[in-house]
User: What shape does this take?
Amino acid sequence: MTVLVDPPMWRAHGRLWAHLASDTSLAELHGFAARVGIPRRSFEGDHYDIPQERYADVVAAGALEVSGGELARRLRASGLRFRKRRGERPLARAVDGLAAAVPGSHVLEVVGSPHERRGAGAAVVLIRSTEGHRMVLVRNASRAGWGAPGGKREVDDGSVRAAAVREVAEEIGLRLEPGLLRPVGYQRVTIAPGEGRGTWDDGDNYVQAFGAVADPAQPLTPDRVEVLEAGWFTLAEASRLAGDAPWWPLVQWWWDQPAS
Assistant: This one.
């Protein structure tokens, strides 16, 4: 077992914090954290934040004490480092997490973010009702199950935001005001060198997720070509239909954001 902990020297919320990480596997890290009673909400995509008062506990349980620099170096070398920007929240990570849609070896990372990925090659829109209890799901002709409306960015779109608006209008007949779309996060699909094909390139590919609010009285008119069905569903109903999808953590992240 190779679980690492650096000294509690990072100040936040009026206390000092350490970082607990593994340079072997996230499964090993989660198992260790569970055994010593570190809550999952402390997980930050590639490490757990450990308050100073729990430092001795994790060391006694077998965590190897290293410097902050050593922990960061070993985490980068392991390939488990989760890249994020200020204000972003790691939501999920899976090796070959989109195996049904993406060719070749890849890593899927789902990130909650207030920042728009302007270079994203595709977009989806998480549409919730004005009263906040329902959301739109569509059943696509080319993909199994239910999902959020959206699709690939075209050359004529000019921006990923414009692509999102166009796709929603084409797929379900719903007209959204571009300026009211709110960046919610993105999926980062990192494809191994030499394995990118079709619309997926080697390296990082991004699918931007926007949030939008719409009146559920507006009719949804699926095009019956790309989208076979569309409807408003309560969050519980939507979870039963799509809760296992890789992008689903973005739904909860969007629902948890304060209204603006």
The chain has a mean pLDDT of 93. The radius of gyration is 20 Å. The chain has two domains: 3-78, 89-256. Residues 3-78 form one domain.
